[in-house]
Amino acid sequence: MTAPQGEYVPISDVWSDAERAVPLTDHETELNSRGLRRGETDWRWASAYLVAAGWLRKHPDGSGKWAITEAGIRALEEFAGDGLLAEAQRLYAVGRLELQASIEEALPSVWVSADAAQRKLLLAARSWVEEGLQNGGSVFSPAQSIWNVETVSALHAKWTTSSKVEGKNFVENLAIQLRDQTDAVKLLMAEIVALQVLPIASVMGHAKKTEKVQAVLELMEHPVSIPTVFDEAFGGGAFNPGTGMMSRINHAVTIIINLAKAWVDLDTDAQERVLGDARAWRAFVLSVDGDAFPTQRYALMYLVHPGFFGPIVSEDHRQRIREAFIGEIGGQFGDDADDDLRRIVIALQLKSGKPVNFYASPLRDRWHPDTQPQPLPDPATLTKDGEDDEGDDVLTDPRGFIPSQIDVASLSDTLNLDADWIARVVNALHRRGQVILYGPPGTGKTFVAKALTDAITGRPDAARRIQFHPSYTYEDFFAGYRPREKNGQLVFELAKGPLSRIAEDARRDPDVAHVLLIDEINRANLSKVFGELYYLLEYRDEAIDLLYAGSGTDGGDTFSLPQNVLIIGTMNTADRSIALLDSAMRRRFSFFELHPDVAPVAGILDRWVEDHPQRFALPALFAELNARIREREDRIGPSYLLRSEKLTAHDLAAIWTENLLPLLEERHLGTGVDVASRFSLDSLLAALQPGPGAAEIAATDDSATAESI
Questions:
Q1: Do 99 and 146 fall into the same domain?
Q2: Model's pTM, two decimal places?
Q3: Is residue 617 assigned to a domain?
Q4: Which end of the chain is least crowded, N or C, by CB within 10 Å?
């Protein structure tokens, strides 16, 4: 690559350079079952080894960008040809063994997490402890010293004496409060905000965390970039903090600023004593001025001593877990609830031989007050900004969007559909998580689905579109083993499908809605394609055992479907009636009909012609056409005629001969209906009074037919 060291480059650019440097063989140019060349697929899979070796970084926001590291540049010089991949594979294997060994070694003594996202989070937290608390430096700019008495005191004084401007959000108020401060003070505030959002999961993802921290950095005269260790950690999190840490950011930041001030006021011996002991650190955090705010204070305890406190910040959850599992440590409550919980965790880790997760079955079933799926919160309650953060919109909806924020009026204008109908679809998608738009051809099902997808996601990388067909399988949709050549031998490797990949993207950005648009959803054998995944459409966030080992979340054997994965399906009822779908499918989706006889499609041509005047009486023409079609599901939608330019006689004749008559021939095959006579454009126009006659169309019929042939 010619890109500067450390700069992210789109995968397509990297692949172009790689292909030019090492042309594909004939075998590598063959297409696999996903329509990709074998060589490119193998190359993408091999990149995982380079990442594990520390030679390559993939952007944590899932945008498909790569960057080479310093170690990667050295590796290119040291290892030639196939030796580079071989060494990367060796380091990958060694790393997995070392990780497993370190986990097993830690199980008897501390609260252990085997989650990759949490490991990245704790790595970032450790850099703060070492660079900030211990050395007084900067996590974002190692050359600077900001966690010191001078800078912390300046920020603390400014923060405690500045009043908030009504109507301004958090960052806008910061711009006013810090406009006369040094870059060092602004950088310190950026690092404090980074600490506040760092452990948040489920309701805030990489994009929102980066946006918030970057906005503070941009207040600097000479801003610095977010370091890789934090950039990668922003893609994960440790816990769902509830609305408090999201909507009361001023209160949360106050606690961290007060903690920083109390920290720099300690002498060196006191700092060593407080930082070196989990209980002493807890006492220090709890003594800091500010609201009680237990979730924020527990988060600070966890970031510094994760082996003692663990990633559970809800006081209620900690107490329930302690009571439910106290038998694991003899049934006697100790004087220290946090120590009881740590001892319980260690006992369970030793019993299972691996880290434990209290939020997954079967452990969750023993302590959680309600193991049934919880209803989504009322969207009307999710736009509260908090008493100190008016104007700072906080989105904590697990679906990743709030129906009231969708511009239904604009969609109505774009689609020429009734706004109330669109609002019902949006609300159903938020309520159920999946909808199906069904109807005969030409009713705009796919067009509407794409418009809804764009409006809800707001980002092209948060949507995937696939089309079902009779040979589509579970292995295509979710995960399955695919053959590929490796070192001259045929091997089978696990390949993930679109549902698995969009779920990974959704977990990385939980505050963004991710939409999977499935076109022609009824053309596949749905029971075969969805398999055990049917359960997850109704019970989101519950883990289920999978068909293929290693195909689940983080390479495990179980999988859960995030709440912010939405599914929009389209169904052509000319192919298959909705009544033929199995009950499991119909129960889990909300269905919305798009049919030329009923709203919102009925009357769309009249509305269209008002905005785009035409020479011919198109609404009457289409009404006459559908009146001659006996079967309701064989009737045709108006999308064939929805063109912004004025249709000429030639255009209309071409639409009839190239699109509509072949479709009608197919639908009336074997019925004895003379399609050419019954549905000819001449016949339909002749039946209309008033309106242009058939003579002008007839004069163009022969040429239009000849063109279509």
A1: no
A2: 0.63
A3: yes
A4: C
Q: Encode pLDDT of 250-293 as tens digits.
A: 899 999 999 999 999 999 889 988 988 899 999 999 999 998 88
Residues 303 and 337 in one domain: no
Burial of 401 (0-12, 13-18, 19+ CB in 10 A): buried
Structure tokens at 430: 């938020």
My answer on whether 72 and 201 are in the same domain is: no
Spatial CA neighbour of 204 closest among 458, 44, 52, 396: 396
CB 244, CB 394: distance < 8 Å = no
Half-sphere exposure of 142 (CA within 13 A, CB side): 5
Domain with 582 in it: 403-593
For strands 565-572 and 514-519, give the pairing: parallel
Total of domains in the chain = 5
Of 563, 593, 623, the residue at which a domain comes to its end is: 593
Which residue type sits at 510?
A: P
CA pair distance 99, 51, nearest whole angstrom: 15
Q: What is the average per-residue pLDDT within 198-226? A: 90
Query: How many of the other CB atoms lie within 10 Å of CB of 345?
Result: 25
The secondary structure of 413-480, three-state, reads HHHCCCHHHHHHHHHHHHHHCEEEEEECCCCCHHHHHHHHHHHHHCCHHHEEEEECCCCCCHHHHCEE
Q: How many CB atoms lie within 10 A of CB 452?
A: 23
Block residue for tokens 């953060």: 389
Note the helical H segments in 107-145. Answer: 116-127
CA dist 43 and 38 (Å) reads 9
Secondary structure class of 333 (helix, strand, coil) = coil
Q: For CA atoms 125, 130, 134, 138, give the dihedral sign.
A: negative
| 492-516: pLDDT as tens digits | 888 888 999 999 888 878 888 999 9
Amino acid code (one letter) for 390: E
CA distance to 15, 366, 543, per residue, from 361 (Å): 42, 9, 8
Are 563 and 636 found together in one domain? Answer: no
Specify the amino acid at residue 381. Answer: T
